[in-house]
Sequence to fold (386 residues):
Amino acid sequence: MTEEIRDVAVVGAGPAGLVAALLARQHGASVVLVAPKAPPRDERTVAMLGQSVEILEQAGVWPALADKSAPLRTMRIVDGTRRLIRAPLVEFHAHEIGREAFGYNIPNVHLVAALDAAVDAAGIERVSGFAESVEPADDAVTVTTADAGSVRARLIGAADGRRSRARDAAGLAVRSWSYPQAALVVNISHSLPHDDVSTEFHTETGPFTIVPMPGLNSAIVCVVGPAEAERLSKLDDDALAAEFETRSRSIIGKIRLNGQRQVFPLSGQTARHFAARRIALIGEAAHVFPPIGAQGLNLGLRDAAAFGAVVRDHRADPGSAAALEAYDRARVGDILSRTTAVDALNRTLLTDFLPIQALRGIGLYAIDRVPILKRAIMHQGLAPRL
Ligand SMILES: Cc1cc2nc3c(=O)[nH]c(=O)nc-3n(C[C@H](O)[C@H](O)[C@H](O)COP(=O)(O)OP(=O)(O)OC[C@H]3O[C@@H](n4cnc5c(N)ncnc54)[C@H](O)[C@@H]3O)c2cc1C
Fold:
């Protein structure tokens, strides 16, 4: 398989890699996907905002997802701290910026299944194994798996997650950090409607977020200290549901757990550059976010869209130095500004420093009272203006 040189090989079949492969193929490139078959079942949901839905439409999978997803029409922020200076309640309504919804909350399992089916329908070749080695050379990169052979391509989409081997092969360094927090994630059913409102209670340990799912169902993302996450995850179903009811101030009524619990330690990671040696970083290979403000995969899909655009604009050699420079330029502002914003937001929640708490309160007050500022924030939350 090694002799023929493909235009593009995408390593990793998470949602970001699958979208990148589809968009590159749509632009006429020969594409091979190097990834193990049968991704693990995942009960998490992802809030796909603004441009992400357009990218999923472009990838041709939105019709398969629309009725499995819940619209997010209002984003509500509640100061759930017991601090001296507290922020006002702020509600962002999609109609204030002329949209029906900010986006849709999509179960991961349906998202990946729809993308997988689209990859097969598009005739994208698969090499079903983990990439064991990735070796860049002047004209192409060779990707070798343990027992599914090897493949050569002019451009590699490194979508192999936070411990990306392809990123190491490109020699792209990352900055990594951790937070004294963990996210407990579980799906629930409830007795009162969520009215398509996503509510984020900001607490001293991080946000407690309720994200709508279709019907009387929601996903909970509860960010607390690691010991508290451990304690909560060991409670029986009734006790945990009661904790959630207290934390949600009963706004969605009686709660019943509706799935398995997962705990994710919170960390962050970002590369300093996003492409080198015929390898471009996509999704968590490029950036890892704490699950705050629903940014991670939204950014990953914008990476995939930029990757597709580079393939379209550099058909002769999509892995050329000019193509890689164009990709890096297209992604650096968006990724670094989001990383900084999410990190700052999280740290303002954790700080005990009164002036910072006051600034946060004043900031949210101003956002609520100044319509032009509020609309600017809403637009910026959906897609970057760079
Ligand atoms: C609790 C929680 C809630 C979240 N909520 C949201 C949200 O609401 N909105 C949002 O936008 N984001 C959210 N995120 C972030 C989002 O889940 C991630 O950004 C996204 O899943 C990353 O997708 P990916 O395709 O980049 O990486 P992954 O899904 O990690 O995929 C990487 C793939 O590469 C494969 N792989 C690894 N090594 C190799 C190799 N050597 N060869 C071949 N394949 C390999 C892996 O098997 C895996 O399938 C959340 C994250 C968490 C933890």
Q: What stands out?
A: The first strand starts at residue 5 and ends at 11. The mean pLDDT is 89. Residues 11-17, 34-36, 39, 44, 46-47, 130-131, 159-161, 165, 183, 185, 221, 264, 283-284, 291, 294-298, 300 surround flavin-adenine dinucleotide (CB under 6 Å). The radius of gyration is 21 Å.
